[in-house]
Amino acid sequence: MSQGTAWTLRRADADDAASIAECAIEAFRHYIPRLGLTPIPMTKDYRAAIADAQVWVATQQNETIAALVLDITDEGFLIDVIAVRPQHQGTGVGRVLLELAEHEALRQGHDSIYLFTNEKMTENRALYERIGYVEYKRVAFAERTRVFLRKPLR
């Protein structure tokens, strides 16, 4: 555990795509047995996300330890992916990324922020609800049910 060492937050560039993908695979692979399928963040094209969305990384000693993908959609300001390598979970880096996302949403003129997660990822839903996100819809498709949660920021 490298809890004592600080991390650096910065916008991702194209050179970060592979390390972001590795981070997402590590962060989400433990869900495969529970879901019976591969979580979408594990297969995302992070090079395209860096080009088309707002991608941030937390690095420590030149390693990507966490990543955040933000996007603007018809529904508003989206946290598309938040991934923290397992050995860095519980260190506060995920919380810092969530706060960064809220700050960016406000800075870019949005009065709320939303995200979605698989209904079977119950720990994620509990965390989001603890910090003010409220479920507002569920969408079932292709063997998954997505739970959408929104947090007002003003």
List the helices and strands and how they pair.
Blueprint: E1 8-11, H1 17-28, H2 32-35, H3 46-52, E2 54-60, E3 63-73, E4 76-84, H4 93-107, E5 112-118, H5 122-130, E6 134-141, E7 144-152
Parallel strand pairs: 4-5
Antiparallel strand pairs: 1-2, 2-3, 3-4, 5-7, 6-7
- Evaluate the radius of gyration: 15 Å
- Structural class label: alpha+beta
State the helicity in percent bands.
25-40%
> How many E strands?
7
Please work out how many helical segments DSSP would assign: 5
- Rounded average pLDDT: 94
The poorly predicted ranges are: none
Strand content: 35-45%
Shape: globular
What is the strand arrangement across the widest sheet? Answer: 1-2-3-4-5-7-6
Q: Give a short account of the largest sheet.
A: 7 strands, mixed
